[in-house]
């Protein structure tokens, strides 16, 4: 999955857990540099990551592992890379006028929502939710919310033109 810093992150399951290979979490930069970020130990259910990674609105990655070799059930894990919080649009694509729910953290007091720079009318529902509609003039690009803490960027919103 591509994180809000532009790098790609993923997991690899164990090839042969009995040999000490219990899987890894890795990073690939846009330039192709590969880095192993974490190697699972195979102890206490820490083995064989499955279903990839999810980057939550707090900026951290979350994932799951399966049962380790002759061991306890799997786990839910968190990996912090120090990435900033982000916002996510639900759905992540839509036409002008389509309703969109924006999920994030500390959204209370938001003063601006924009779709690739085009401002939108919005309503703050709670500290974790803002509702809006895709504004006229919007284009595919970054969704941003301005809060008292600063600008929080999101994943790309894809404008559907209906064509």
Features:
five-stranded mixed sheet; Immunoglobulin-like; 15 strands; mainly beta; 2 domains; four-stranded antiparallel sheet; 163 residues
Task: Report on this structure.
This protein has two domains: about 70 residues; about 70 residues, Immunoglobulins (Immunoglobulin-like), CATH 2.60.40.10. A five-stranded mixed β-sheet has the order 8-15-14-10-11, with no helix packed on it. By secondary structure, it is mainly β. About 0% of the residues lie in helices and about 45% in strands.
For the termini, the CA-CA separation is: 28 Å
- Beta strand %: over 45%
The strands making up the biggest β-sheet line up spatially as 8-15-14-10-11
Q: Based on helices, strands and strand pairing, what is the structural class?
A: mainly beta
Please estimate the helix content.
under 10%
Q: What is the H/E string?
A: EEEEEEEEEEEEEEE
| Average pLDDT metric | 87
Main beta-sheet annotation:
5 strands, mixed
Overall number of strands = 15
Which of globular, elongated, flat, extended, rod-shaped describes the shape?
elongated
- What is the number of domains? 2
- Helix count from the secondary structure assignment: 0
């Amino acid at each position: 999955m591509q994180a809000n810093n532009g790098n790609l992150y993923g997991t690899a399951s164990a090839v042969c857990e009995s040999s000490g290979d219990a899987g890894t979490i890795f990073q690939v930069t846009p330039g192709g540099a590969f880095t192993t970020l974490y190697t699972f130990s195979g102890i206490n259910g820490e083995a064989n990551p499955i279903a990839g990674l999810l980057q939550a609105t707090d900026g951290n990655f979350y994932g799951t592992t399966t049962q380790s070799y002759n061991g306890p059930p799997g786990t839910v894990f968190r990996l912090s890379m120090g990435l900033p919080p982000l916002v996510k649009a639900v759905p992540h694509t839509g036409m002008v006028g389509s309703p969109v729910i924006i999920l994030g953290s500390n959204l209370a007091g938001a003063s601006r929502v924009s779709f690739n720079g085009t401002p939108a009318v919005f309503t703050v529902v709670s500290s974790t939710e803002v509702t809006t509609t895709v504004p006229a003039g919007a284009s595919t690009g970054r969704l941003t919310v301005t809060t008292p803490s600063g600008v929080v960027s999101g994943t790309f919103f894809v404008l559907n033109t209906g064509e």
